[in-house]
Amino acid sequence: MERTDQILYEAADGVAVITLNRPEAANAQTTSFLDDLDAAFTQGANDPDVRVIVLRANGKHFSAGHDLKDRTGWAAPEKITVEWIYDAEMRRYLDYSLRWRNLPKPTIAAVQGKCIAAGLMLCWPCDLIVAAEDAQFSDPVVHMAIGGVEYHGHTWELGARKAKEILFTGRALTAAEAEKVGMVNRVVPREDLDAEVRELAAQIAQMNPFGLRQAKRAVNQTLDVQGFYAAIQSVFDIHQTGHGNALSVSGYPVLMRLDGMKERLKSQ
């Protein structure tokens, strides 16, 4: 698949750097954007010279989540059904996020500005997260009559009570709060974010690659034994009932209301 310039990829000295490159749209995710991102992750995973993969973003914000105006690449039927929504979201949202989580190489996300809803599905699958001091993390989709994004890592990332608070209120979690609950590894000044992440990636790249792979596998499998994988799969089904609720409230275009809410969030 030929990639566009909305996802940039470079590799040197054992580190691949993937850059989200739709700054004019706050790195909102179209279908082609996600396909290109998956291709970039796959390229890094398959390159024997790459030992660490960094995910970063150009612009003020890491990601505003799904681009709700995007309808390209979905091949939607004339009548949208629950089955069609389920299969489309399983492929591009849940399956992609789980695949990125289980890449056989360490991954680091560098997050600045807003990380809204599906933006979490880009940074949460990464092994480490370094946040700029201005980073804010939110999942306000309860406003859309849906209980959370498709890759529902909230409880694992935040703990049960903080997850409920963020979902129930729709408010953003600051970088300092995210570090306090263990969701991010480090918080640094915005101007130091890229340098800090590249230094961390370079340090990890000096480690034995098989040892890194096995260490990641050990931690991920421990979480899976505790129920992570089964929970993610089952809560995805719960998410799908949210679409039914949105339909029952005012029809599927209720989803479009999040665009205006995102604009308000960006200005806060």
TrEMBL record:
It comes from the Bacteria. It holds the Pfam family ECH_1. Gene3D superfamilies: 2-enoyl-CoA Hydratase, Chain A, domain 1. GO terms for molecular function: catalytic activity. PANTHER family: ENOYL-COA HYDRATASE, IP11341P-RELATED. Belongs to the enoyl-CoA hydratase/isomerase family. This is Enoyl-CoA hydratase/carnithine racemase. The lineage of its organism: Bacteria, Bacillati, Actinomycetota, Actinomycetes, Streptosporangiales.
